[in-house]
Amino acid sequence: AQSVTQLGSHVSVSEGALVLLRCNYSSSVPPYLFWYVQYPNQGLQLLLKYTTGATLVKGINGFEAEFKKSETSFHLTKPSAHMSDAAEYFCAVSRTGGGNKLTFGTGTQLKVEL
Amino acid sequence: DAGVIQSPRHEVTEMGQEVTLRCKPISGHDYLFWYRQTMMRGLELLIYFNNNVPIDDSGMPEDRFSAKMPNASFSTLKIQPSEPRDSAVYFCASSRDRGRGNQPQHFGDGTRLSIL
Q1: CA atoms of B27 and B24, how far apart (whole Å)
Q2: Which is deepest, A35, A37, A51, B69, by most CB within 10 Å?
Q3: Residue A80 has what DSSP assignment?
Q4: What phi and psi, each to the nearest 5 degrees, are found at residue A97?
Q5: Alpha-carbon distance A44 to B113, whole Å?
Q6: Taking CA atoms, what residue in A is nearest to B88?
Q7: pLDDT of residue B102
């Protein structure tokens, strides 16, 4: 069984500040990890993914995430927040043989303030 | 390439009516997923297909819900009869099959369903 825990359902940062959204996973086999972003009235859009190889993954819009097996974490970061980053962010996990089925976290709403 | 296309974008209907939501996956994708999103329950997987065959429908809430995929380019999610508690945003997503479960899902923009 797999699961994902996103700490903090709401995160607020100032424009220009570091963005850190936390994601911890539980998986009995090596996981594949994803971050998605959802803007209002839109579907989920892939930000980045970790499958194998380099543990620091770069995505779109300046976001990156680091897979840390020892901490079972896949936190999402961005050095400098922009107003346009305000959205809901979902962490998700899948596994080999899982048929591309994703288990999603409950989401983190990011608010960016002036 | 065109993304996942869902129709209609919005649907408002009265309780008891039949509702049909439609999805066209990305060409060449082998998996198709139907999700429901609400404030209370978040994002829920309802059912998914592989090569047009339903693989897991354990998320379908009750017999009023049914889904079909008659061919690789079209799927429907039907609710009959509809109830106010079915009001939600319904998403369709698709992905390729590379045999390892590591392919991302691509989402449509959703259908916002309101049952009065």
Answers
A1: 8
A2: A35
A3: S
A4: 80, 0
A5: 17
A6: A41
A7: 83
By the CB < 8 Å criterion, does A63 face chain B?
Answer: no
Contact (Cβ atoms closer than 8 angstroms) between residue B104 and residue A57: no
Residues of B in contact with A27 (CB under 8 A): none
CA distance B13 to A51: 42
Residue A53 touches chain B, beta carbons under 8 Å: no
Rounded to whole angstroms, the maximal C-alpha distance in chain A is 45
Structure tokens belonging to residue A110? 């990011």
* Cβ separation A101–B45 shorter than 8 A: yes
pLDDT of residue A70: 92
Cα(A105)–Cα(A87) distance, integer angstroms: 15
Q: Which residues of chain A have pLDDT under 50?
A: none
Token representation of residue B17: 């009516």
Which three-class secondary structure state does DSSP give residue A84? helix
Q: Mean per-residue pLDDT for B2-21? A: 96
Minimum distance, in Å, between the CA of residue A30 and any CA atom of chain B: 11
**DSSP string of B93-116?**
EEE---SSS-PPPEE---EEEEE-
Query: Mind listing the pLDDT tens digit for each residue in A18-50?
Result: 999 999 999 878 889 999 999 998 999 999 999
**How far does the CA of residue B66 sit from the closest CA of chain A (Å)?**
19
Three-class DSSP category at A27? coil
- Whether residue A90 lies within 8 A of chain B, CB to CB, comes out as yes
